[in-house]
# Entry
Amino acid sequence: MTSAAPLPIPRAAGSLPFIGHALKMRDNLAFIDSLRDTRQPLIEIVLQPGTRTIVVQDPALIHQMLKTLAPTLDKGRLYDKLGQLLGDSVVTATGRPHVRKRRQLQPAFAHTEISRYVDIMRTEVTATITRWQPGQPLDVREAMVALSLDMLAKTVFAGSLDDAVFRRLRSDLSVVMNGVGVRLMLPDWAERLPLPFNRRFDRARAGVRATVNTAVQELQASGHDTADMLSMLLRAIDEETGKPLTGHQIASEILTLAVAGTETTASVLSWALYELARHPRIEARVLAELDHVLGERDITLDDMPRLPYLNHVITETLRLHHPGWIVTRRTTEETPLGPWTLPAGTELAYCQHALHRDPERFPDPLTFHPDRWNDTTQEPPPGAFLPFGDGKHKCMGDRFARTEMVTALATMLRTIRLQLPHNHTIRQTARLTVRPHALKMTIHPRNHPPTQTPH
Ligand code: HEM
# Structure
């Protein structure tokens, strides 16, 4: 019996012998965006010599990949690299270990916990703003990374740590996060070069492991339950060995969660502040909504759904400036995808950044337009808008992240105003996430009048 030959999957233009698309990847975002313009549902790129990656561009096929095919897919190259750097964790695992790890961490993201976190998040935002000097330029992304790390660490990790230990953990995690972003783009051998950058990374990663190990030993010795993630992981039993998790396993979960939950939130918050500074009318509407709903009081979890316009601003930021530029998977067996059949071991990828800027689904895609989310009957089709992914690997921190972003923006915007330099154009850089490059804004108290032309 003969089966129909599969349709050929085209290779993207610009591939060179031996190096594939390495030259094109120097401007990775422009390259990935250019793939979308080919309007091919699947297109092949060569990131490493000898390795084909199929970029899935059609929303229906992305949906199939993330939902129906999920049980038979590995997480692919991006996560292999993350696992090498940070150890096995819920983010890198697949199959039964993944389900088990997700179950272990889930209680930290339950509704009751998040409602407790809002007060801590607000306190961290207020403390951050208090340290800023009016009239001074602020490196916005750096500030948002520090704030996101504080919000995450003080809510889910820190119950077990005293202040000095917490500060050390925070500083080591911040070195690890920056290092991971750079290393994802480098060939593996570059990590072994005896460069100061590599040594700093190795030291910080070892520092995080040592801190977590000590905290685990102290918690074990004291028998206390501090009700934070460390305690939660300490109580968990590894179903394979029947024993409690080791300090190494717990540190791997914490390292990966810090990376997954800080880089992303920091990038989205930075982009939101940038867009609000560029669009004073949108900012004014956000402030009017905050005044109307909150008056003089602080924000609480119950306010989240009562701020539809601020929520639309965040959704629009997640559309126009999604931090994910490549998310990977890999087939573990011969796999049907639409009319194609892919052999085992095929690397797959999808890219929210390009997907969310598709003019066919989002008219005038490069314009920041929160009102496009007003009409809830016009939701994008499945697979076309994936701010937090979909299927069994959907973001565990989606509710946490939205709560953080609403709390941070509501608290910051009512106190300070950030101003862009005149005629400022911003470049975007794609490392671990797509982030604004060298975004500096001047801090003013909120009563300072805007000096820019409204867009
Ligand atoms: C704006 C902020 C965030 C965005 C845009 C975001 C986006 C995503 C996306 C797209 C995925 C799916 C990746 C895939 O399909 O392979 C994901 C997974 C994940 N995210 Fe987030 N995330 C954010 C914040 C957070 C936070 C704050 C946390 C934790 C505190 C977190 C924890 C995770 C975890 C653990 C996974 C892996 C889930 C699994 O594989 O089961 N994320 N995130």
Observations:
- Residues 90-91, 102, 152, 257, 260-261, 264-265, 268, 323-324, 327, 387-389, 393, 395-397, 400-401 surround protoporphyrin IX containing FE (CB under 6 Å).
